[in-house]
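task queued by scheduler; priority normal; single chain, no ligands, no partner chains; default sampling; output format set to C-alpha cells
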Amino acid sequence: MLRLCGFHISNYFNKVRIAMLEKGIDFELDPACRPSQKDEFLARTPLGKVPFLQVDGQHLIESQVICEYLEEVYPQKPLYPREPLARARVRELVAILELHMELVVRRLYRSVFFGGGPASEELKASVQAELAKGVRAFRMRAKFDPYVAGAELTLADCAAFVHLPLVSLATKLAYGADALESMPQVKAYLKLVGERPAFRQVNEDRKAAQAAMKK
C-alpha cells in the first residue's frame, strides 16, 4: 500500500494527492507530517521536506518525482498526453509554475502569510522582476482550452490549481495588485477544475486545516 505523507496546507502535498485521486490510485494518507530536521524524520525524507511517498518500505521525495513515478507505475489513467511534444509541454508548464512562479513568490510568504514583518523593498523588487518573467512564460504557454495544457486534464492542472492561488494572494498582499491580473481566464479556470471531485476534496481539506490552525 502506498502512503502519502505531508500536511493539508502544503501545496506540493496537495498537488500529489490530487494526481493520485485523479488516477484512482489506492493509497493511505498521513496528513500529520511536517518538515523537520530531526534525525528520525530525515531517515524517511533526507531533505526534511514534504511530501514524500512510502513505497514498499522505501521513501520517495520531491513532488514531481513522485508524480512521474506514479505515471509510470499506474498508466491506466494518464495525466500526460501520449504524444512526446505534448508530454514535454505539460512538463514545461509544471516547471514554469513551480520554478519560475511559486518558488519565486515563496520568498514573500514569511512576510505576507506568517507574520514575519514587512519584506524589504530590495526583496520585493527582486521577486517582482523575476516573477514577471515567469508570469509572461506561463501566459504564453497556458491554453485554458479548457484545461491549462489543452483539451485534457493533465498534471499541469494538478500543479496550477495549488500554485496559482498562492501567487495571486501573495502578490496582492505584498504589492496591492495581483500578478495574474493580465490573465482573466485564471479565475474561471480555477472554478472549472475546482468542481472536479478530487480537486474539491483536497481544497476542502486544505480550508478545514487552515481554519483549525486559527482556533
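post-processing summary
- The chain has two domains: 2-73, 84-203.
- The longest helix spans residues 84-105.
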